[in-house]
TrEMBL record:
InterPro entries found in the cross-reference section: Macro_dom (IPR002589), Macro_dom-like (IPR043472)
Classification via NCBIfam families: PRK00431.1-6
Domain Macro per the UniProt entry, residue ranges: 1-172
Pfam family, one: Macro
PANTHER family linked to this entry: GANGLIOSIDE INDUCED DIFFERENTIATION ASSOCIATED PROTEIN 2-RELATED, MACRO DOMAIN-CONTAINING PROTEIN
Superkingdom in the source lineage: Bacteria
SUPFAM superfamilies: Macro domain-like (SSF52949)
Species for this entry: Polaribacter porphyrae
CDD domains membership: Macro_OAADPr_deacetylase
Name of protein: O-acetyl-ADP-ribose deacetylase
Amino acid sequence: MKISVIKSDITTIKVDAIVNAANTSLLGGSGVDGAIHKKGGVEILNACKEIRNKQGSCKVGEAVITTAGKLDAKYVIHTVGPVWNKGGFEKEALLRNCYQNSVILANQNDVKSIAFPNISTGIYKFPKKIAAQIAIGTIKRYKNNNTIEEVIFVCFDEENFSIYEKILKNDTTI
Ligand code: ADP
């Protein structure tokens, strides 16, 4: 499995699946969620509504998969990151679950290439360094245990990009 980092807008990436940092409502929001729904179109929202009708909201740490609508990707995997200032120790485990459950869904849907945003590091205020170590560490743990060939971490801001570059270069995952 190839792991890389780029600085870009995730809605422009051509991979089998892009991951969305959604919220529990699955009905769209701001940040990367808003960008994905805006560019991907109403098909994504309709698919999310269907999922809501079946299972209700999406819990923190869990993930669901939909069409990617008008985007270049085939699928959007929506996962709900934890809010940093809510709850105790479980925040880190919940962020780990986001990456883990996204990988599981990707495998179930024969996804060979997947792009992740920096989940929870925007409005949800997770410290960027800790979030990056969790993201990379969780993906590395799956390295030999799935059918995904390529994982791209898509950073929107320079700070996240340089944190990811450093961790990937020096392998300082936790
Ligand atoms: P959360 O609520 O999980 O914190 P946000 O969307 O606020 O979600 O932020 C998550 C990360 O996504 C942040 O690092 C933010 O800079 C980044 N982001 C925002 N828009 C995009 C985009 N179009 N492509 C990739 N990353 C984005």
